[in-house]
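Hi there,

I know you've been waiting on this one. I reran it after we fixed the sequence typo, so this is the corrected version. Both the input and the resulting structure follow.
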Amino acid sequence: MRVLDKRIRLNRRNFLKTSAASMAAAGAVSGGIVSIGATPAWAEALTVVKPDAAKTLLVMVRDLYPHDRLSDAYYETALASMDQAAAKDATLAGQLNEGAVALDAAARKLHGSPYAAIKAEKDRVAVLKSIETTPFFAKVRGDMVVALYNQPEVWAKLGYEGASAEYGGYIHRGFDDIDWIKDA
């Protein structure tokens, strides 16, 4: 008697066919919106910063502190901490929302579209340079450096091992063992 193997054999064609069907089903379930990457849900979860302002701020902070190896989630966490501070300070809340609107206006003036819609990084940087003397820019840049780099998960991604004072400092702990320091 011959034994038949009834397991499903997955080859490239079946994989692509199954994947396409899954994406179509996901699109139907989500009302036709299938999003890859940053979702607007995090922006709507903020209490003070408006969703449109949050999207603009996300792109802004990615341009201020660009790290290809960091996903948007780390930047979103940093913006959420700024949103929490803005919930206690109406002046900061206004500064963030109005500043994002002003950034979009500057982007429209230079490139004809909102800041987050500009594809080329060099074009977005040109917009940032046009507002770099504003209190809004200074506030976001100053707060984001702390909010982004105070996340231990970010430390791991960037190769920072944490404080070393309790171990006698960096000089005896291989301070030059990080590859990107040697390349600089």
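Quick highlight: The radius of gyration is 22 Å.

Best,
R. S.
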